[in-house]
Design a protein that fits this description.
single chain, mainly alpha, about 70% helix
């Protein structure tokens, strides 16, 4: 899931390179000319879209492992599975951290996961406001 989110801005920039490069090499009317054909076929013209990306400031798998490690212990199946997953994620085995991210979406993890994002958004508030203008 995270790989797709991280790849989205790159895909947007790659797609935007087509009309940008076309305009640079074929003139300012390139986008207008190509959109005549594109709009007829897909019902909407190509647009050049700027992006603003705020990425995670901490590895979500490691954060999940930390949350699991600080859970109160019980003897239930959930606790046994949680500790096993945390051990594997803590060793950074292939896919262990990603598995924790998929399985652990309780309130504690969600709060710890969103807090760095909120701080990053607060720090970038000026740049984000300028982007949205």
């Amino acid at each position: 899931m995270l790989d797709r989110v991280e790849a989205a801005p790159d895909r947007l920039r790659l797609f935007d390179a087509i009309p940008k490069s076309g305009t640079q090499t074929s003139g300012e009317d390139f986008l207008t000319r190509i959109n005549e054909a594109v709009a007829a076929e897909r019902g909407a013209p190509y647009l050049i879209a700027d992006d603003f990306v705020l990425g995670p400031t901490r590895d979500s798998g490691k954060l999940a492992a930390e949350c699991l490690a600080h859970r109160s212990e019980s003897r239930g199946l959930r606790d046994v599975l949680s500790r096993t997953i945390a051990r594997h994620a803590g060793r950074e085995t292939a896919g262990g951290a990603a598995l924790v991210c998929y399985l652990l979406f309780d309130r504690r993890y969600a709060d710890h996961l969103t807090a760095p994002g909120r701080r990053a958004a607060e720090q970038a508030a000026g740049a984000l406001a300028a982007f949205l203008e």
